[in-house]
């Protein structure tokens, strides 16, 4: 009995070793593999059957060499299989190392290629930037040419429109410029010349050249616009058109300035203004973009009743003034003075007034606002001006200071031509402001005065050659209280 159980025990021990290698308990597998009905409980298994069962189990990979070695009884095959597995691992490591080396080499080649392409990309980017800069410069030049064309539009459109030459009509100002007229005024760009060769020509935006004609039918509407714009555009220039100097005082005078004042006072009391021009801008010279900021007020003027010489009448008619329109549609001076007092431009220290002929411009303005005769002495007149216009500059006085300082530095030689006269046109030429036909009108004169003042301030930083700033000549009138 013992001899029969010995082989059985050896077989069970061998099976336990196999299942221990496969990771499954022998008892569990032995219970599943027992055949009922044998009466002995002996498992009917062999190595081949065990190998099939182990291989069919999911997730398990026994060592086949052990199974084969057990089935064939050759234990030496196990060492050969281990050696083969070791060689396979070595081959796999070599393959992985080769793949990693190839990957690193490919990355290095890609990086070198990128490094070679970087200068080319940078060069292409620089070329693109240069092309963009050239395009921007060309576009800027085209915009400047377009501005020059728009600025000269007045000269081509309104050559026959009274009472002011080249003044944009009201309907055209509302609807903008007509592109179909480009061919008409583009030919006239070459006629824009600056007589002074020193400074470059100042390029004026088209909106700076918009001038609104004001008659009695649109007087109230235009003062509404002036009242609205005066809150932002607090620099205003004034220019007055009148019949000229028709009276000279006689007698003894305390000083030369007193004589000048008495001459101005006599003519202002005897005459009525024909036109008054006003122009608005901010402290930097900027103007509204989509609406006029310069107005030309046409007053009621009857040549049959007013005092005017024949020579002055012919000269005014040649300048484009239609006295029939002034008699029929002219503005009443009393209505103008009332609206001016309510415009926000008077009695305000934040408003800066600019004029080139302060004596007559402020003389007619004070006369209209006071609605009475001029003061007898210039001290009272100066008091009224300071009350109504608290801050103003006489551009004529500033220009004279500049000219006198230049003459002191560079004395005139006998062979040199005489010095230019102190006129608004000469000042504009020295500042590089081009001459336009509309500057010959009363509204254009106020516009040119404001442009010259703004340009002079920008160029000189509000400093005069004698070391003084503009404020040193504030509220001084050339010929009245300053020489």
Structural class: alpha/beta
Instruction: Tell me the overall shape.
Output: elongated
H and E string: HHHHHHHHEHEHEEHHHEHHEHHH
- How are the strands of the biggest sheet laid out side by side? 1-4-3-2-5-6
Coiled coil: 89-151
EC number: 3.1.13.4
Keywords: Coiled coil, Cytoplasm, Exonuclease, Hydrolase, Metal-binding, Nuclease, Nucleus, RNA-binding, Transcription, Transcription regulation
Region (Disordered): 154-181
Indicate the topology.
Elements (H helix, E strand, L loop, with lengths): L1 H21 L3 H8 L13 H10 L7 H9 L3 H76 L1 H5 L12 H6 L6 H5 L24 E4 L4 H11 L5 E7 L14 H15 L4 E7 L12 E5 L11 H9 L4 H7 L3 H9 L10 E4 L2 H13 L7 H11 L3 E3 H15 L14 H7 L11 H19 L23
Question: How is this structure best summarized?
Answer:
By secondary structure, this protein is α/β, with parallel strands linked by helices. The protein has 18 helices and 6 strands. A 6-stranded mixed β-sheet has the order 1-4-3-2-5-6.
